[in-house]
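Structure in, sequence out. Go:
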């Protein structure tokens, strides 16, 4: 691989995109879907076919950037568009990472390790074929970290300004990364300290001199605040404006985080990601709790240990690694009952590549080709073990599906396909009253929103009061369904309608849902 961007990187990225598409098609046709992808598909379907406020739907759906990209690809195919976007996005991430090491003196075998990771690492394959927004999170995280490292080398405000843009885009791909602002301040302080011209170069001596000299202390404080303001003025302003938008349209500034109509994780974090515990040996030995979370990260990304050795004499780069560890521990404290998705772990692998890309000299790059590739192979094994012990059911489901493809075993189809297959046979003239707060999976699997009447449409409340005049079917949760409390249509709705003299006959059901046929028996 030459030092300049060449056609070979583009060609390999394109072939990698085709590789991801092939696996994604096998999973998609086999009935394996991620809930985030179905959420994006359902919102795109409502935007194309539903009688909804399009500006409100696009403006309030979160995460914003992955949804918009998925909606753009929906013109090529509604159901497959999130998967198409994630496959393309992961290939773009590969292109960005490989391009960043093109001038490295060890670029050839560094490139080989990156290629092996993107082709065989279960987490990267999961991001590419699931339609989740993880690919976009990793892209902007990597670009943000690279900009920070470039600022370390050049000490110019340009890279800090670019980092601010990437950080804003990162937040609108995953809001939890906004808490990273708390842990960047010590790094900026240390960088500002390093740039101060004092008699002694030892960091502790510099701190002592800066704190005891008025002019140096004033310069240090001013520079630290200036850099911090440049990085975080844009993301903080963007968050405030977005919260004002939510407050104006819905009366709730946190609507984009807490409403199941705007954010699929509002339900998932209280159901799937809350109540499931891993039953594997690794999960029992290293559970996802405080402090042991760091052990799980090191098991998932052993490349970290190797990168800490590279920069053992450059403290500011070590601080970046430690700040991300503290950030992860903070997330576990802030959200103690919600398990951390795998893309937060994978961010450490991207951080390792950013560290290596900035190790330009032989003096600081203390490792050999064989040692590096051995760790890459070891990382594939530890990633499989970590994902297999994951507390997030969807990650284990996709890992099991990938193993089934390798072993050429039949895939286990999603349970909601039973209902969606039945609904596809219903005439388009017969409407279905549904609440997309929790029924978005069934609407997405049906492939069209035309037959559904959802709360975002003007006639929903009238149909809820007198469904006979508007629809022929009612989609409601079962009494034992964990999704029941998050929607308007449940067993209480069915009882209320029966009191009004409306006959409801079940025609199809699965684990969580019943499709009722509506008939008016009131005399």
């Amino acid at each position: 691989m030459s030092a300049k961007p060449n056609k070979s990187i583009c060609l390999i990225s394109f072939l990698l995109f085709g590789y991801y598409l092939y696996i994604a098609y096998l999973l998609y046709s086999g009935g394996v879907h991620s809930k985030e992808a179905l959420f994006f598909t359902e919102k795109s379907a409502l935007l194309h076919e539903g009688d909804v406020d399009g500006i409100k739907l696009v403006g309030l759906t979160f995460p914003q950037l992955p949804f918009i990209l998925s909606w753009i690809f929906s013109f090529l195919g509604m159901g497959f568009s999130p998967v198409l976007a994630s496959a393309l996005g992961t290939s773009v991430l590969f292109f960005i990472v490989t391009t960043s090491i093109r001038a490295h003196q060890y670029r050839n075998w560094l490139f080989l390790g990156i290629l092996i990771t993107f082709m065989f690492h279960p987490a990267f394959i999961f991001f590419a074929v699931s339609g989740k927004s993880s690919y976009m999170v990793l892209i902007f995280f990597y670009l943000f970290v690279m900009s920070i490292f470039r600022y370390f080398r050049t000490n110019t405000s340009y890279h800090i300004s670019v980092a601010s843009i990437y950080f804003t885009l990162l937040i609108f791909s995953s809001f939890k990364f906004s808490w990273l602002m708390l842990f960047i301040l010590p790094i900026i302080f240390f960088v500002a300290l390093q740039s101060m011209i004092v008699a002694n170069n030892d960091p502790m001596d510099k701190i002592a001199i800066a704190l005891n000299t008025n002019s140096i202390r004033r310069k240090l404080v001013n520079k630290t605040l200036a850099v911090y303001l440049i990085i975080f003025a844009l993301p903080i302003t963007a968050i405030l404006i977005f919260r004002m938008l939510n407050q104006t349209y819905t009366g709730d500034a946190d609507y984009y985080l807490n409403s199941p109509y705007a954010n699929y994780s509002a339900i998932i974090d209280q159901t799937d990601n809350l109540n499931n515990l891993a039953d594997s040996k690794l999960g029992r030995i290293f559970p996802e709790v405080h402090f042991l979370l760091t052990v799980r990260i090191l098991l998932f990304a052993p490349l970290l240990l190797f990168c800490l050795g590279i920069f053992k004499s450059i403290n500011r780069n070590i601080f970046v690694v430690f700040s991300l560890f503290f950030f992860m521990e903070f997330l576990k404290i802030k959200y103690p009952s919600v398990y951390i998705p795998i893309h937060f772990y994978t961010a450490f692998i991207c951080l390792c590549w950013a560290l290596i890309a900035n190790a330009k000299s032989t003096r600081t790059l203390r490792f050999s080709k064989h040692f590096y590739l051995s760790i890459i192979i070891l990382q594939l094994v530890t990633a499989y073990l970590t994902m297999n012990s994951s507390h997030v059911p969807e990650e284990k489901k996709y890992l099991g599906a990938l193993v089934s493809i390798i072993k050429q075993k039949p895939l286990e189809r999603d349970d909601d396909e039973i209902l969606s297959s039945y609904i596809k046979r219903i005439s388009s003239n017969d409407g279905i009253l549904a609440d997309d707060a929790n029924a978005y999976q069934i609407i997405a699997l049906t492939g069209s929103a035309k037959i559904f009447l959802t709360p975002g449409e003007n006639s929903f409340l009238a149909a809820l009061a007198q469904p006979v005049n508007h629809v022929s079917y009612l989609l409601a949760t079962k009494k034992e369904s964990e999704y029941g409390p998050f929607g308007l249509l449940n067993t209480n709705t069915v009882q209320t309608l029966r009191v009004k003299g409306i006959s409801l006959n079940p025609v199809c059901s699965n684990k969580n849902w019943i499709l009722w046929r509506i008939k008016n028996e009131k005399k």
